[in-house]
Queue: 4 jobs
Job 1
Amino acid sequence: MAIYLDSNATTQIPPRVVEAMMPYLTGHWHNPSSSYAAAREVRAAVEAAREQVASLIGAHPDEIVFTGSGTEANSTVIKSLAREIGRAHSRVVISAIEHSAVIRPVEAMAAVGFEVEKAGVGEDGRLDLAAFAAAVVDTCPGFASVMWANNETGVIQPVAEACHIAKKAGWFFHSDAIQAVGKIPVRVDEVPIDYLSISGHKFHSPKGVGALFIRRGSPLEPMIRGGGQESGRRSGTENVPYIVGLGAAAALMESEQSGGGLARVAGLRDRLERGILTGLGEGADSVRCNGSREHRTANVAHLSFAGCTAAELLPALDAVGVQCSAGSACMTGKSNPSHVQKAMGFSDEQAFSSLRLSLSIFTTETEVDEAVGKIIEVVKRLRAAS
C-alpha cells in the first residue's frame, strides 16, 4: 500500500462523506428548485450543507455561495471586483506567492490596463507587510488579495494585518483560503475580509465543489448568469450530492479542530521532519526545512535535498511507495523553478531540489515512520550515484 503524502494536492474522501452523499445520487435526485415535497427535502439538504460550511469558518449561512471549484470562486471575486473598481485610476495588489488561480486572472487584468502590484515575501515565505502597505494607497480605488496559507510551503500569511491595511485604504479584501480551511482555524468573524475562497477536495470532500464567502453588504457581479440559483449569485442547477459532501467534510473538519485532530497531524509532521533530519543531517549541504517553522499549517513539511533533484526524487520515491510532490499539482511538469520559492530567495538549485510532503487527518504514525526510512534510503542512493 502506497504512503500518501500529497494531501495539499487532494485528499481522500472518507466513508462518512460518501455515505452522506449517496442518498442524493439515488433516491433524492430531485431538482432543489422544484416546488413539490421531494424537491423541498433536497433543498433542505443543500441548506444544511450551507450551514455546515458557514459554521466551519464563522460565517452566516447566507454568506456562503456554492461553486464548482476554488478556482471558480477566485475568478468570480476577481472579475467582479475588476468591474466594481473600474479600469481607470485603480490598483490591484496581490502577494508574489499567490496560486495561479489568482495570479492569472489578475495578470489578465493587467493586460487590459489595470495597475497591478505584487508585494514580496521574506525568506520565511511570509508577506512583507511594509511592501504591501506601500503598494496599497488610499488615493485610488482598488482591492487586495492575499492567500491565507501557501499551497507549496504551508506558510500562513499575516492575513489579519494585510486586511487591516487594505480596509484602512478603503479597499476590498479577498483571501484565497483554499489551503487553509480545514487545516487551521479560519474565522471570518474575527478577520473582517470581504471575500474568501474554499475548495472542498483539500479537506476530504469530492473534487468539483467549492464555496465562496461573501460578507453581507459586499458587492458581487455574478460570473455565471441564468436561472438565479444561489440567490442569483451563481446560476446553474446545484450539484446536490457534492454540496452535501462538502457540508459533511466541513462538519468533519470542525470536529477535528475542536477534538485535537489538527494537533495530532502537526505532531506527525514534526515526527516526519525529525526523522529525515536525523537520518540525513540538517544544513545547506544536506536537508533544509523551508519557510517559517512557526507560522505554517499543521500538515506541510517543505524540504530541500542537496545533491538531488525533485525530478529524480519523485519517481524514485513513487517506485518504493511514497507519493508526494515538488509543489503545486497544477505546475507538475513545468521546467521553470517555482515562483513561490524564487520569491523566497531560493537559488534554482535549491528550488529544483525541493519536495512538499503534506499529511492529512488519515495519515498514521506507521506511515510516517515508513516514509522516513524510504526517503532516507532513496536520497542516499541518488547521492551515491551522482
Job 2
Amino acid sequence: MEYKESAYNALLEEIFTLFPSVQKDGFVPGAYKPGLERMTAFCEALGHPERRFSSIHVAGTNGKGSVSSMLASALAATGLRTGLFTSPHLKDFRERIKIGGEMIPKEYVFGFLTEWKPYFIKNRLSFFEITTALCFKYFADSFVDVAVIETGLGGRLDSTNVLEPDLSIVTNVGLDHCALLGHSIGEIAAEKAGIFKESVPALVGESSPEAASAFEDKALMFCPLYYAESEKPALWSRRGEILKKMDLRGPYQEKNLRTVLAAVDILKEIPIYEGLQDMECVMDGILHAAARTGLRGRWEKLSSMPPVITDIGHNPPALKVNFDALQALLAEGKYSSLIIVYGVMADKDLDGILPLMPPDATYIFTAPDTPRALPAEDILARWKDFRAARGMGADRAYVAGTVRAAVQMAITLAHTLGEQTNRSASAAKPVPPLIYVGGSTFVVGEAIGLF
C-alpha cells in the first residue's frame, strides 16, 4: 500500500483501537500482557533484529528517561550511531523511537504496520509489543551501532527483556504499579532485577537494604553487580559544573548523573564503547542530552514571565522530590508564592500523593483529555477531605475543566499575586510567583503544546 498521510493516520487510529495501550487506555484487558513468549516469537518472525546491534537495557521506577537520554547523547557524541527507545510519549508515539534525536519516519511506521498487521491480530499482541518490535526492526534496518532501550513496566516480564545487552541498569526502586509488580520494595526490585543477564554487568543507580538484597540474590547467580552510590566515576568531581550547565534540569538529576557516569566507566572498557574514554566528549554529550535526544517534560521551564516549570513525575517517590524542591525554592526567597496546576490519572495513588503536596500552595485542579483522567472535581473533593481531616483550610483551590483553562487561570492568578506582592514589597527587585504544572504525562504534554 502506498504511503499517504491520510492512510497513515487511518492505520494508526485502527492500530490504537485494535490494540489498546496502557498510556491511552490504562490497564484494560489486552493493554498489558506480561511475558516474553509472544515477543520472542515475533522477533524470530522478524529475523531477530534485536541481535543486530549492541544495546544497553534500562529499568527503574523513576529516572529511566533521563538516564537513557544522557547515555544515548554521550554515546552519539563519541561518533556511534545511537538509537533510543523510551516511553511514554507526550504527543506523538514516534517520540518513543529515535536515532540521533530524530523520530522514526512515518513512512517506515506505515510500512511496518501494514505488513505485519495480520500477524498482530492473529497472535493477539499488545500495543507495547508491537512498538518494541517496530523499534528493534527500525534500529536494525538503520544500522545503528548501539541502542539504549528503556523498559516499559517492571523488567522480568517486559517485552524489551528479549535483549542480550552489554549493560543492564536499574535506576531505582519505588512503590509504583504495586498490583502488577509487588507490594514491597523487595518484590519490585526482584522484578526489575529480572533484566540481569548472565555475565553481563549490572548497575544499580540508587538502592536500599531491601532492594539490595533482591539485587544481590539475582546477581549472585548471574553477573557482576555495581552500585553507582558506591562508585567514584570519572567526571564525578566535576558534577557541580555539569549540573549547572546541563540542559536536563530538576532535583533528581544529580542521582541520574551519577548513574550515567558509573555506566560510562563500565562501558568504556568494552571495545565498541572505547570512545567513552574521551571525558570531554562524554561531558559534551551529557550537557546537551535534552537537545540531542528531544527529551522534554523534565523540570522544563516553559516560560520566564511568569515562571512556569513542568515535570512528568507522577508517582509518590517522584512527586515527593519535586514538591520538596518547590518548597525549597520558596524558602530561598526565589519566588513569592507557588501555584500548582495538577491533574492525575484515576488509577494513581492519590491518597499517597496528597500528604506530599505543599500545604501553602494555591492549587488549580484539572483533567487532561483522556478517559483515564480523574475528574478535577473529584481531586478537589478528596483534597478538601484530606485538609479537613487535619484541621487545615481549603480556600486556595480551584477547578478548571481543561489543561488549557487551568494554565490560563494560573497565569492570570500569577499576574494578580505578582502585582499585590510588588505593591507591598519594599525590595527593589520584584519576586514573582512560580507556576508548576504536573501530576501526569498527559497534563505535561498538553501544557507544553500551549507554550
Job 3
Amino acid sequence: MQLPVIRTVVALAALVFAAAISPAQTIVPASPEDRALAKEIFKQLIEINTTDTDKGNVTTGNVAMQKRFLDAGFPASEVHLLGPDPRKMNLIVRIPGRTRTKGVLFLCHMDVVQALPSDWHTDPFQFVEKDGYYYGRGTQDMKDSDAALVYTFLRLHREGYTPERDLILALTADEEGGNFNGAHWLVENHRDLVDAAFVINPDAGGIDLDHGKAIEADVEATEKIYADFRISATNRGGHSSLPRPDNAIYELTAALQKLAAFHFPFELNPVTRAYTEEMVKLVPAAQAADLRALLATPPDMGAVERVSADAAWNSTIHTTCVATMLSAGHAHNALPQLAEANVNCRILPGHTPEEVRQQLAAVFADPGLTVATVLQEIAYAGHSTQQAMAPPPPLDEVFVPMRKLVNQLWPGVPVVPEMEAGATDSVFFAMQGYPSYGFSAVALEHDDVRAHGQDERIPIESYEKSVDFFYAYVKALGK
C-alpha cells in the first residue's frame, strides 16, 4: 500500500440504501482459543521476512500458510501455490460454494516494505507485544489483514461452513515493489483462479480514530494514478577546484525548489465534490466554512489555499508530485556530470502521466533538464494511460452487511467510500472491469499511520476487532 489514504465519497453512493435489508449478521467475539490462533498466525507472518531483498522471500510466507490450510484438511485441489518466480509465489485458497457461481475474491499482498533494524526501537521482523500494541513490519500494511483472513478461512472450514458462492483468498507478491506483481500476473495468466463477482482488498480503508473515538469507516472504491518521473541534469563537469554556476546539482535542485513551490490546479470532480459535501457536516465550523467555499461557483481560492495546507486535503483536491530520491556526482573532487531525481506523482483521475510530465517540464522551464517517464502503473494490463478508473457501483451486497457489522463494533459510525491517493493491487482488477473495494476493518488514530515507516504497530484491540469483523463479513458475503 502506498500512503496516505485520502477519503472521497463515490458519487451516487448513499449512506443508507433503500434496498431490502437482510437480517444482520451478529458479531460474536472469538473464543480465547480462536484469539490465540489468530495471534499465532499474525506472529508467524510478521517473523517471515517477505521484503523484495536478498533476505526476503514471499514464497516462504505462502508455503507456511499453504501448510496450515492443507494440515487443516483443505483439499489440495483448492489450494494453489504458483507464480513466475521461485521467490515470488502466490497462494490461492478457495472455499467452494453450493452454486459455484462467481464468488468473492479477498485480495491481500504478502510482501512488505524493507525495514532497517537500526532505524527501529524493536526488531522489525520480530513480533513484539508492548503497551497495548503489536509491533513489527507489516502490522499495518498488511499482514494484519492477511492473518485475519487466513484465520477466518481456517475457522470456516473447521466449522464445516459451506457458502452459497465461492470464497477466494489470494495472498500475492510484489505489491510494494519488485518485478513479479502477483495480482497482475494472476489476472493475466490464471484468471480462472481469481475470477469473481467483485473484489475486497483490505489494503485500504479502515476506521479513522480521533483520540480513541471512531469518526468514520472508509471504504476504498477508486484510486489516483501512480507515476514516477526521472529528472536529469547533465554537465561537462570539471575539477572541483574550479567551481562554476552551471553545476548539474545546482541546476537540479533549482528545479526541485520550483516544484516544491508549485501546486497543480485545484479540481473537484463529482466524486470529490460529493465527499466534500459530506465532510461539511462532520468537521469544525471554521473548516466547514472553507469547504463550502470550495464548493462555490467560482471557488474561493483563499479557501483552497487554506484547505491545501492539510496534506490529506491537498491530495484530495490536487494532483501531487514530490521528489523522493536523489543521485549525483561521480567523485568527491570533480564537478558532477550528472544529477538525477525521482519525482513521484499521484494523479487525479481523468489526467494522464504524459499530461503531468509536460506540466513538470513547463514548471522547470529549463531546456537543460530532461523529464522522462519511469513508471506509469495504470498502464499495466494493456490499458491506456488515457483511461481513468471509474468508481464501481455501490453494491448493496457489499455495503449493507458492512454497515450492519461496522455499526455493531463502532456504533453510529458512517461508512464512507473513498478515493485512494496511493496505489493498491485493486488497479489490476478494476481496470479489467471487476468492482473492487478496500476495507481493512482496522481502527487507527489518524496521526499514527506507520505503514512503511519506523516502529510500525497496530493496537491489539484493533487487530482483534478486525478478526471478529472479517469472520462475520466473509460469512455475510458468502450468504
Job 4
Amino acid sequence: MNVRMKGIVKSFGANDVLRQVDFSVQGGEICALLGENGAGKSTLMNILGGVLQPDRGQIELDGETVAFHSPAQSLKAGIAFIHQELNLINDLPVYENMFIGREIKKAGGFINHKEELRQTGELFRNLDISLDPMAMVSSLDASYKQIVEIARALLMKASIIIMDEPTTSLTDPEIERVFDMLRTLKKQNVGVVFISHKLREVMEICDTYVVLRDGVVVSGGQVKDTSIPRISRDMVGHEVRTESLEQGAEVGPEVLRLENLTQEPHYRNISLSVRAGEVLGVTGLLGDGRSELFRTVFGDGGKYQGGIFIEGKPVRMKSAPQALKLGVAYLPRNRKENGIIKDMDILDNGTIVMLDRLARFGLIDRKKQAADFDRQRRELQIKMGSPSDMIGSLSGGNQQKVVLAKWLMTDPKLLILDNPTQGVDVGAKEEIYDIILRLAKRGVAVVVLSNEAQEIIRVCGRALVMYHGDIRAEVRGETMNEANIMRLATGG
C-alpha cells in the first residue's frame, strides 16, 4: 500500500497546527516522523488514523482519494495506529487480546476460543514470534506487549502501522526485539510510521524521515543521507549543543553518603557520596539496580542492609514523607505511570506533594498554591494555558517540567532524577539540562540516573557505572566517554 497525504491543513481555533503538510509512506518502508513536542506529528497521524478530520487537503491510498471519519474506517482501509499507551487488557491471555471487539463466534453465539487460539498461533509462527498465545498479558515485558499490538494490527490486515514512541519505556534488549519485529514487517511489505525522539534509533531502523516544525515540513529524505546533528537542527531551528555542559562548579559539604547498602537481588555493597552543588551520574543498562537503589534512598524501596547518611547523620529510610522532611526529592522514571495524575489539572499535579503545607485549618490556601506554582512555572519556563487545564493538555516536555516543579517546591537538598528526559524532544532536553545545572549552582546535590551515556556526559561532573547491581567503576574527565561507559555497563 502507498499512502500520500497532500496539503493537509488543520487548526484548532486560532492555532494553526498543520500548514500545507505533505507526507507519504509505502509498503516495505520504515519512515520516521520527527519534530519537537507540539510540532504537529500526532495531529497529522490522528488525521491518517481517522481520529481527526483535516480542514483542507486529501489522503490517497494507492492513488485513490479517501476520507476517514473514524478510526474504524482507517483500520478497515489497512491503517493501524499503535499509541504510546498500549491498548491491552492485562487480565486476559494474549490470544483473547488479539480478538477484543471482533471475537470469533460459534453458531450459538459463544466465543470460539479454539479458533482464536489457532489463528493467533499461526500468525506468531509466520512472524517468527516466540510467544505463548495462552500467556497472560500481565506476565509480558514491555517489548512483547508492543509485539502483541503489532501482531494484532496484522491480524486486522493492516498494511500501514503507525507507532507512537514505541521504545520509550523499553530496555536495550527489548528495543532490539521490537526492531527485529519491524525488520520482519519490512520483508512482508508492511509500511511503518515510526514517531520517536530517539534519533540514534531512527538512524538504525528507519529508511526515510520527515521533520515537522511548527506545523510545516522542514526537511525529509533518505536516512542514510543525513545525520543526527542535521536532524536535531531541523527539529529545533538552530544548532543543538553537543559539548559537555558541566562546568566543574564548586561543591560544598556532603549531602548523601551510602555505606555498603544492599538489597538482594537488586544491588549490593553500594558505597558512594554526593556533595552540595554536584551533579553525579549513575548509569548502566536498564535492570542494573540503580532505580531500586535510589528508591531506597527515597524511602520507597523496602528493607535494606547498610547505612544511609543525610548531611552526615545516619537515618533509616522507611517512607517517602520521611525522605521529603529530610530534604530528599525523587523524580521517578516513566512519567505517564509514576509522575503525573492524569485526572488532575496542571496546578494540582504541580503542587500535590505540598498540599499539607498549603493547608490552613484543613482547607487548602488556593491563593498561596497558585502563587507558589506560578513562581515555579516562570522559573522552569513551562509553556501552558490555564493552570486549571488538565495535565494531558501539555506536551511531554512540559509535563516533565510540571513533575519537576512539584519536587522543587519542597526545596530539596538532594534531588534524584530518574531518566529526567525520557520521552521529550531535543529542545526540551536542553531546557531540562539547563535547569539541572542551575540547581547545582544553587547548592542542590543532584543525582541523574540515565541509560543514555551522552546525557550523563553532558550534565554530570562524574558518573558511576553499574552492572548487575554492583558499581563497576567511577568515570570522570577523559574516562567519561561513550565507549568506556558502554564497556563497563556490559561487564567489561
